[in-house]
């Protein structure tokens, strides 16, 4: 009689335990999945921040040359022979040559001011040319160049100070092809549709004189 009661008790309690264990197993699975999805959400939120970081834009060769010329001018004024020699070497490596007497005189002054001027590069290909000068406050210079159709043109200005000059390139019919303000080490690059004359203008918007180096390539 006692054995029969124990068997009866097993049959009553046994079926109830099995669904309870199954429910606990199901609950654990749901909680684990929730933690996994939460971790995935956190990772997905963090990922765009990493992807959104961008490196600064590298200078083009013409922009770099314009910057080196301007920095050489500043180094010369400050009597910094080491910085002047470094920038002067970069100008030589670019194969740049002054296209006016003022630029030639300035280049010679730079070379004579340092103890050991970098040796002249021999056998290099013809590089870009540049114009140098000083622009009074509120004034502008205009130079005209005939540019070949179908050939890419790069023009940039190195200026000191950096934030007061505006570069503008105007087609023969008066249409503005490119404008950079401030102009320092910012390239205007375009391809003329046909050979024609363009006007390159530098305007000093600042309250004091500014030095410039206008690079053509």
Q: What are the salient characteristics of this protein?
A:
4 helices, disordered N terminus, Jelly Rolls, 217 residues, alpha+beta
How would you summarize this macromolecular structure in one to three sentences?
The chain is an alpha+beta fold and about 220 residues long. The chain is built from four helices and nine strands.
Characterization of this structure:
α2 (61-78) runs antiparallel to α3 (81-93). A hairpin with a 4-residue loop joins β5 and β6 (176-180). 44% of the residues lie in helices and 26% in strands. It starts with a helix and ends with a strand. Mean pLDDT is 77; it is low at 1-18, 35-53 and 117-126. It has a single domain (61-216), classed as Jelly Rolls (Sandwich). The longest helix is centred in the first third of the chain and has 51 residues, at 2-52. It is globular and about 50 Å long. The protein has four helices and nine strands, in the order αααβαββββββββ. The protein has a five-stranded mixed β-sheet with strand order 1-2-9-4-7. A four-stranded antiparallel β-sheet has the order 3-8-5-6, with no helix packed on it. It is an alpha+beta fold.
Topology:
Layout (H helix, E strand, L loop, with lengths): L1 H51 L8 H18 L2 H13 L3 E2 L2 H13 L15 E7 L4 E8 L5 E8 L4 E7 L4 E5 L7 E3 L5 E9 L5 E7 L1
Parallel strand pairs: 1-2
Antiparallel strand pairs: 2-9, 3-8, 4-7, 4-9, 5-6, 5-8
Helix pairs in contact: 2-3
CATH class placement: Mainly Beta
Give the helix level as a range of percent. 40-55%
CATH topology: Jelly Rolls
Number of H- or I-type helical stretches: 4
The number of distinct β-strands equals 9
Structure class: alpha+beta
User: What percent of residues are in strands?
Assistant: 25-35%
Characterize the biggest β-sheet: 5 strands, mixed
């Amino acid at each position: 009689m006692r054995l029969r009661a124990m068997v009866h008790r097993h049959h009553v309690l046994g079926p109830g335990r099995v669904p309870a264990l199954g429910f606990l197993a199901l609950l654990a699975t749901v909680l684990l999945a929730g933690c996994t999805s939460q971790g995935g959400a956190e990772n997905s939120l963090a990922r765009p921040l990493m992807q959104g970081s961008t490196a600064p834009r590298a200078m083009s060769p013409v922009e770099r040359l314009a910057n080196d010329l301007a920095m050489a001018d500043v180094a010369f004024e400050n009597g910094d022979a080491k910085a002047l020699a470094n920038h002067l070497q970069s100008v030589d490596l670019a194969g740049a040559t002054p296209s006016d007497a003022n630029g030639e005189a300035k280049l010679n002054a730079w070379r004579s001011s340092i103890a050991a001027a970098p040796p002249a590069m021999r056998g290099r290909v013809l590089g870009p040319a540049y114009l140098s000068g000083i622009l009074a406050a509120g004034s502008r210079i205009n130079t005209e160049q005939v540019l070949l159709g179908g050939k890419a043109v790069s023009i940039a200005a190195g200026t000191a100070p950096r934030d007061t000059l505006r570069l503008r390139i105007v087609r023969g019919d008066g249409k503005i092809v490119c404008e950079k303000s401030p102009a320092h080490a910012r390239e205007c690059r375009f391809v003329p549709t046909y050979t024609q004359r363009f006007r390159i203008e530098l305007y000093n918007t600042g309250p004091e004189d500014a030095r410039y180096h206008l690079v053509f390539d």
